[in-house]
Structures are given as structure tokens and as C-alpha cells.
Design goal:
Layout: E1 4-8, H1 12-23, E2 27-31, H2 35-43, E3 47-48, H3 52-58, E4 61-64, H4 69-77, E5 91-94, H5 100-112, E6 116-119, E7 122-123, H6 126-131, E8 134-140, H7 142-155, E9 156-161, H8 168-196, H9 201-208, H10 216-227, H11 236-252, H12 258-275
Length: 299
């Protein structure tokens, strides 16, 4: 089994995944449009590549951790794309959140080129990616797992196998995103109401995180609000995209999703109000007439 692996996209999750693979003893080649990110990884023991094609020529298994379907398309089939450089039988593992139909189509297109595809969305956040404890929701041909399963376990505490062909991995991921987006929106609404009613934000956080109304998203994202820190670990526009995918998928089968639709509108409001690139907790900023906690040292 090859010990050479490639990671395309060194954002919050991709950098952690590459680090976990390196820690697992793999020879990790990386590419990111931000050359400095790839070089920083290489300085710690990886190999920076100048293009997806250069990376794909060296690695039999390529993990793509870019933002969306359009970027995946560009990584594979754009200028200096990976598809044309990968060796026959190579594996392209797509970790992005995309429409399930896109994953199914990508599997077919790559198989026509003699390549293998793994539908492999991820969850857990940057810290769990860095520690090798994230979750992977995978679906693909049995032969794909023969080539890359040890790599998956080097990056994830839980690797779920959800089908023998692409599609179910992406379906489960967008359902996860449905819940994540609705939970963040509900958490922001609850915190905003508490502040409006004169409850100290820190008191509200302390009580809710020790009560039945708590959720992982409330505990995690409302901590950002308390700190007044909207540095984007996951940006508002990520949920504009992901809840849009949820609604598109449900619309195709005429399935109603009233809570998802309301949450999507909240993220859309935040995005168009100028918070698109802030942390998704910034959805709380759409509520009028409340004074949010300020960052330490802020005016």
C-alpha cells in the first residue's frame, strides 16, 4: 500500500488532515492556492506542490478539501488539474460538502478515466481534524477502501461506510448540515432574546450549557459571541451554501423543510448585511436592538 498521499486545500480542516496523515507516517504532498500555506506545511515535514497536477502525479490517493463543487471541478479538470495527471487506479477522495447528485456524477466521470472516487465528507471542526479525531461519512466501491482505508483512520476517529457507490456520504453530510445550521440559528435567536430581555449574556450561557436546552452548537458558537470574536472558523456563507444544498435536495422530491428554510433565510440576511465572511455565529447580528459582547480591548 502506498505511503504517499496528497491533500488539496489547507484550510481549517485540510491542514489538520494533512498534519494527521504526516503524524501517521505518510509522505504528504500538499497544494493550496495560498502558496504560503503549502510552504508552511512543507517546513514541518511535508512537500509543497505548485499545482493539483504536480500533486496528483506523485500521490496515488488524493484528498480534496476545497469549499464546494465548483472548486472541486477546477481542481480536477481546470488548468493543471489533477484528473489528467493521476495514474490509472488512483483514488480521488472528495471531502467537500456538495449536492449528492454531484458526487454520483463525479464518480462516473472519474471511472471513465480509469480512476476511483470516494465520496467522503467530513465533520468535527478544525481541532478534531488536527488531532485525527474527526468524523468521515464515506461511500464508494470496495476497491477504493482497499487502497485508502488506513489513511482514513489516520485522520478520523470514526469512518462510516454508507454505501458501495457515491451519494450516501454526501446525503448524510447535508443532513448533518441541516441540523448544524438550524442549531446555530436557534442558538443565536435564543441568545439574542436573552440579551434583549436584560439577561447577562454570560449568565445565560452558563445556565443553558448546563440545562436541557443546550446543544453542541450553542455551547461552541455562543462562546464566540461572548468573546466578541467572529474570526471565521466556519463562515456565514458556508451555511448559505450548505442549507441551500439541503433545500435543493428536498425540493427535488417535494419534501418540506420549514426549519431549514427559516435558518437559511437568517444566514442569507447575515450575509447580505455584510457578515458573509465572518464566523457563522455572526448570524446573531441580524437581530435589532441588542448590544452584543465586545472583544477584549474593543471599544
Amino acid at each position: 500500500m502506498s505511503k504517499t498521499v496528497g491533500v488539496i486545500g489547507l484550510g481549517a480542516m485540510g491542514m489538520g488532515m494533512a498534519t494527521s496523515l504526516r503524524r501517521g507516517g505518510y509522505d504528504v504532498h500538499v497544494y493550496d492556492i495560498r502558496r504560503e500555506a503549502a510552504e508552511a506545511f512543507a517546513a514541518e515535514g511535508g512537500r509543497a506542490c505548485a499545482s493539483p497536477a504536480e500533486l496528483a502525479a506523485a500521490a496515488e490517493v488524493v484528498f480534496s478539501v476545497v469549499v464546494n463543487a465548483a472548486q472541486t471541478e477546477a481542481v480536477l479538470f481546470g488548468e493543471n488539474g489533477a484528473a489528467g495527471a493521476m495514474r490509472p487506479g488512483g483514488v480521488f477522495a472528495m471531502c467537500s460538502t456538495v449536492a449528492p447528485a454531484f458526487a454520483v456524477d463525479m464518480e462516473a466521470r472519474l471511472e471513465e478515466l480509469g480512476l476511483m472516487f470516494l465520496d467522503a465528507p467530513i465533520s468535527g471542526g478544525a481541532a478534531r481534524a488536527a488531532s485525527g479525531e474527526m468524523t468521515m461519512m464515506t461511500a464508494g466501491r470496495p476497491a477504493v477502501y482497499e487502497k485508502c482505508e488506513p489513511m482514513l483512520h489516520a485522520m478520523a476517529a470514526r469512518v462510516y461506510k454508507l454505501g458501495a457507490s457515491a451519494g450516501n456520504g454526501s446525503k448524510v453530510k447535508i443532513i448533518n448540515q441541516l441540523l448544524a445550521g438550524v442549531h446555530i440559528a436557534a442558538a443565536a435567536e435564543a441568545m439574542a432574546l436573552g440579551i434583549r430581555e436584560g439577561v447577562a449574556a454570560q449568565d445565560l450561557y452558563e445556565v443553558i450549557t448546563h440545562s436541557a436546552g443546550n446543544s453542541w452548537m450553542f455551547e461552541n458558537r455562543m462562546a464566540h459571541v461572548l468573546a466578541g470574536d467572529y474570526t471565521p472558523l466556519s463562515a456565514v456563507d458556508i451555511f448559505v451554501k450548505d442549507l441551500g444544498l439541503v433545500l435543493d435536495t428536498a425540493r427535488a422530491s417535494k419534501f418540506p423543510l420549514p426549519l431549514s428554510a427559516a435558518a437559511h433565510q437568517m444566514f442569507m440576511m447575515a450575509s447580505t448585511a455584510g457578515y458573509a465572511r465572518e464566523d457563522d455565529a455572526a448570524v446573531i447580528k441580524i437581530f435589532p436592538g441588542i448590544e452584543l459582547p465586545k472583544a477584549a480591548g474593543g471599544a
